[in-house]
Structure formats: C-alpha cells, structure tokens
Write a structure and sequence with these properties.
The chain is mainly alpha-helical and about 80 residues long. The chain has helices at about 1-25, 30-80.
C-alpha cells in the first residue's frame, strides 16, 4: 500500500510541476516542449525504479509466504 501512495505522490507532483512549468514558462514553445520532454523522461525513469522495487518486494513477500505455507503443510503431513 505504501508503494501506491508513493506512486500517487509522484504522479501528482509531476502533474502539478508540469502545469506550473507550462503556465509560467518564459521560454518559447519549442524550449518548453523540450523541457517537458526531459522532465517526462526523468519521471518515467523514476517510475520504472519504483515499479521495479515494488515487484521485487511483492516477489519476496510471495516467496516467503509460499515457503512458510510449504513448511506448515510438510509439518502437518509428517505429524500424521
């Protein structure tokens, strides 16, 4: 759940930053688009890192749960 909050915060920050940047841009349209593209690429990179970490965390949690359940089942079967 924490990762969803982080992703939501990142998305909100990027949206607000982009909007403020466009509204207050003293540069030409071409420079503004180039700047927005650069920021979008940074955002994409950061989002990919967050998603990679989230997948790693979920995979680790899943593997731990499977291992724990397997051990419990083996224990129950050997007790019988």
């Amino acid at each position: 759940m924490n990762n969803l909050k982080i992703i939501g915060g990142i998305l909100s920050g990027v949206a607000v930053g982009a909007l403020i940047g466009v509204l207050t841009a003293p540069e030409s349209g071409r420079k503004t688009r180039k700047s927005l593209n650069k920021e979008a690429n940074k955002f994409k990179s950061n989002l990919n890192k967050v998603m990679d970490n989230t997948v790693k965390d979920l995979t680790s949690t899943y593997n731990s749960a499977v291992s724990e359940l397997t051990d419990k089942v083996k224990g129950q079967l050997s007790a019988k």
